[in-house]
Amino acid sequence: MELTFARQSAGEQPRLLVIDGNRHYLGVLSRRLAEFGYRVATAESAQAGLAEMYRMPVDMVICDVELRGTNGIEFARMIRDDPVHRDVPLLLIVGRSDPAAAVAAFRAGADGVVRKPCHFEVLAACIARQLSRADAMKRLTDDNAMLDAKIITRVIELRETQAQLSAAEAERRRLAAIVDGRAA
């Protein structure tokens, strides 16, 4: 399966953070994602995952709901409440027979839910879609910021032009008064 990423043009593959308390599954998942061309960082707990996010930015987080200590649902809430990371795409992994966890994941702010065990090609497609959406949102945000800056520049230019027009009108009135005074 051929997957392409928007960041390839920048010469950099997306960096994923995978968080799972099961070392074996964490290893399998990270190896498979690396085979799809992703750069993968791993963590075995929510706290270690958050520390990794602050250590080096990630393009997406994939986190198991069943973590020791802070679980994946709580981690999702922490990420969504964090102004630095709130826009990072987040997929939560839930057990196949746990629809309540899937609902809780979405309520906590997950962008998607993957059931365990997952089909890796489906997971890769889901990741590519989320990364594409995040990239589009980033471009939209950047475009909006650029438009806002242009609007501010135009408003400043308009005010300067209005001030020049007012000064010119005042000068015209002054000269007209001088001319009218001489004509009388």
UniProtKB/TrEMBL annotation:
Matching InterPro entries: CheY-like_superfamily, Sig_transdc_resp-reg_receiver, WalR-like
Residue ranges of every copy of the Response regulatory domain listed in the record: 15-131
Residues modified as 4-aspartylphosphate: 64
Keywords in alphabetical order: DNA-binding, Phosphoprotein, Transcription, Transcription regulation, Two-component regulatory system
Keyword Cell inner membrane among record annotations: no
Source organism superkingdom: Bacteria
Protein name, per record: Response regulator
Protein species of origin: Sphingomonas anseongensis
